[in-house]
Every structure is written in C-alpha cells, then in structure tokens.
Amino acid sequence: MPTPVLSTRRGVLFQNDCLEILRLLRSESIDMVFADPPFNLGKCYGGTSVDCMAESDYLVWCKSWLHELTRVLKPGGSLFVFQLPKWAVALGHYLMVDERMMLRNWIAISIKNGFSRGKRLYPAHYALLYMTKGSPSVFNKDSVRYPIPTCRHCGTPIPDWGGYRNRMHPQGVTLSDVWTDISPVRHKKTKTRPSGINELDPRIPERAILLSTNPHDIVLDPFGGGGVTYRLAEKHDRRWIGIEIEDCSPIINSILEMPIVERDPDGAINLLVEIGIEPPDS
User: Which of 12, 83, 148, 257 has the least C-beta neighbours within 10 A?
Assistant: First the structure.
C-alpha cells in the first residue's frame, strides 16, 4: 500500500501517479473533486509528467482518470474540471454520455492576456466544467460572492444592474457562469512551484470548494501542482486527499507553514480507512 508523504489532521498527500491511487479508493467515498490536469501543451512539469501526447492518446488518458473520479464520487457529489475549451467539449460529452454525470454549468473564466491565433477568434476564456453525480447534495450558492465592480476613479459601481444597483447585496454579487474578476493564472510573485509552470489562481478552487462542500466533507485533487486546493481545504475545515506525481516538497512546505495545520496520525488513519486505503502501519 502507498505511504503518504504528508499527513495532517485533515488530509493526506501521496506522491504517485494519480491513477495508481484513484484505483485504490473506495467507490462513492469522496464528496467533491477539483481537477486541473496538464493541457497537453508540451510543458515541462518535471522528470515524470508527460504533456505531449497524440490527441487521441491524451483523450484516452483523460477519460481513464475521469472514470475513476466519477466512480469515487458519492451520489450528489461534485466534480470540477479546469480545461481548455477544446478539451472541455470532448470531456464534458464523455462525462454526460458515458459516465451519466449531470452538467450544472460550463463556467467561463476570462483570460486577460489572450491573443489571436491563426484563423480563430481571440480566445477569451478557460472552461471550468461543473458536473454532479445526480442532483447536487450541497449547493451553497449564497456562500460565494464576488465584489461589485466599481470605477477606479470615483468608486461608483459600474454596472447598473437593471436599475437595482442600490439594492445589491452588501457582500457582493452572486456567482454566474462567467467569471471576469479572476485571472486564471496566478502571478509569478505568488507562485509556490519553483519551475515557473503556471499555477491556478486560488480563488478558482476556493469558490468550487465553498459552493459544493460543507465542513468536514472530503475534497480530492488528483493533480496537486502547488498544493493550493489542499491549503484551501485546510483553511475551510474540509478533509482532503492529495496526489502529485512530481516533487511534493513545495506542497509540503507550503502546507506546514500554515499556522492552523496540525499533524495528527490518528486523523490521517481514520481518513485513509474511510476512503478504503489500508494505513501503512496496520
């Protein structure tokens, strides 16, 4: 059985190929999944990851881990997949037709620095597929809001909101399926990954977590990257399962720097048992 490279009171982190770990998990044991896979753009993520496949091979690979993710989701659980629109079309179709998942939203996250490529329109968004295994068991719509856009000169709200601007909720606007207030790629000054590879803005997985889970629910992220999903799970009192095939030391260091993080072998053992993995020392 694999041994976690990090165990906290709320979560465990494995340095493995995600498929090896996913196949060990008990069916219907996970409340929510956030997946930000490589986009097959030929980027170098380290010594193990492969990001330059034939298109058909890439789709087969994606479907293999998506199949496992839908299997481990509880009924009513949520799956978020961050992707290029090109791949999101094919993967969304696969999830709906083959895996019988329900599409809640295709969330468009605007790109601030896109540029025209060949005979195509200016690419202005990434896709965040929001799928559920049947009717969602958790949907905290009012827990996630974004600030009302205001003029940077006078501070006045920019949209008129159909004449109801003065009646807007003081905490902001309820989320729609178009997010214009977030740049998908995290600024290089705040990245935790040393190689310079793109790292997702933490507000994207944070909104997914708050929207679709409650405290103590189990969040799974099979492509750990810089570990932002795991830090957010710790912050919001969710339990978490992490997997990263490359060097995990940046993730471990960033999590252990959080003052709220507690090492608790018993808590980790209980979590492993709940998801169907035999604890290493048992």
Answer: 257
Percent of the chain past pLDDT 70, that is, above it, reads 83
- Quick check: is 62 in a domain? yes
* Among 159, 230, 190, 258, CA closest to 11: 230
Q: What is the pLDDT of residue 187?
A: 45
Residue 46: pLDDT band with limits 50, 70, 90: low
**Statement to judge: residues 35 and 92 lie in one domain:** yes
Ranges of H-type helices in the chain: 18-22, 55-72, 85-97, 203-212, 228-235, 249-256, 265-275
- If one counts every other C-beta atom within 10 angstroms of the C-beta of residue 244, the result is 27
Sign (positive or negative) of CA dihedral 61, 62, 67, 72: positive
Element (H, E) at 53: none
Say whether both 148 and 71 belong to one domain: no
- What b/e readout covers 14-42, taking b as 16+ CB neighbours within 10 angstroms? bbbbbbebbebbeeebbbbbbbbbbbbee
Q: Identify whether the C-beta of residue 230 lies closer than 8 Å to the C-beta of residue 11.
A: yes
Q: What CATH number corresponds to the domain at position 128?
A: 3.40.50.150
Contact 129, 88 (CB under 8 A): yes
Tokens of 162: 């159909």
In sequence order, the β-bridge partners of residue 174 are: 145
How many Å separate Cα 30 from the centre of its chain? 14
Domain of 79 in residue numbering reads as 15-138+186-247
Query: Are 112 and 211 within one domain?
Result: yes
